[in-house]
Write a structure and sequence with these properties.
The chain is α+β, with helices and mostly antiparallel strands and 102 residues long. The strands form 3 sheets. The chain has a 4-stranded antiparallel beta sheet with strand order 1-4-5-6, with no helix packed on it. A 4-stranded antiparallel beta sheet has the order 7-10-9-8, with no helix packed on it. A two-stranded antiparallel ribbon has the order 2-3. The termini are far apart. About 17% of the residues have low confidence.
Length: 102
């Protein structure tokens, strides 16, 4: 019985960690447009599933395809790189080796 309880708890903890690993906090430092949706400077929630990124800020939400690249080293902090104007070009996720190319 005790072994079953420990195993169940371990599986539940692993599932919780796996689902949390797909959600990140991103700070936008300027007005940003993702897939036609405008975001104000400030904190956003980024959810990553497969090769799709969903950016949420209040009632605003936008989904777009991304290419995930892995670096050899972890990024110290989350940074957002912009291309022309206010379009996101890449996001480097702090604490991970993942770089999202939009």
């Amino acid at each position: 019985m005790r072994k079953r309880l420990v195993t169940s708890f371990a599986i539940l903890a692993a599932l919780t960690l796996a689902s949390a690993a797909n959600s990140y906090r991103v700070d936008l430092y300027k007005a940003t447009v993702v897939n036609g949706v405008s975001f104000k400077p400030g904190e956003c929630k980024l959810e990553l599933k497969d090769n799709q990124m969903v950016l949420k800020q209040g009632k605003n939400s936008a989904q777009t395809a991304v290419k995930v690249e892995n670096s050899k080293d972890k990024f110290y902090s989350t940074t957002v790189g912009y291309g022309d104007g206010n379009q996101i070009q890449e996001i480097r996720l702090g604490g991970t080796t993942m770089k999202l190319l939009v």
